[in-house]
Amino acid sequence: MYSDFHGQENGREYFTVEVIGNHVDFSTEIADQNFRRHVHTNHLFDGDLRLEGSTVLENAYPIYSEGSHERAAQAIIALKPAGIGSLGRQGGFNSQPTARVSTVDAEAALKR
Predict the structure, then answer these.
(1) Is the pLDDT of residue 34 over 90?
(2) Considering only CA atoms, which of 24, 105, 25 is closest in space to residue 61?
(3) Which of 3, 19, 80, 87, CA to CA, is 20 to 30 A from 53?
């Protein structure tokens, strides 16, 4: 789970932050610096803010192609007899970005 608070452990509090990679040249260091600057400027955190780790994902969100809605619906139906429920934006295959820029990016990638 990204961009959420995860509570306390051994007297410390933990949270995660999701960053759009191409806005920071896919650099953990730049993302960290930008986040620190943002929280400092807006007085959001006090104390010792530490980066404990990071993961860079190349394909974090799917861009669905033609017919994918029907294939996803069939997959969800096929899982039900096994006792598996596929829920939520990602589990329900409903995480298609609505911004026009996502569509433009996907169309450009498909033309390559």
Answers:
(1) yes
(2) 105
(3) 87
Report residue 89's pLDDT band, with 50, 70 and 90 as the boundaries.
low
For 47, phi and psi rounded to 5 degrees? 95, -165
**Residue 29: its H or E element:** helix 28-41
Counting other chains too, the contacts that 65-70 makes at CB distance below 8 Å and 24 or more residues apart are 68/93, 69/93
Task: Provide the token pair at 54.
Answer: 């990071």
**48-81 pLDDT, tens digit each:** 889 999 988 877 766 667 788 788 889 889 988 9
The H-assigned helical ranges of 60-99 are: 68-79, 88-91
Query: Backbone phi, then psi, for 84, in 5-degree steps?
Result: -105, 120
Rounding to the nearest 10 degrees, give the CA dihedral for residues 61, 54, 44, 14: 100
Q: Are 19 and 35 in contact (CB under 8 A)?
A: yes
| pTM, two decimal places | 0.54
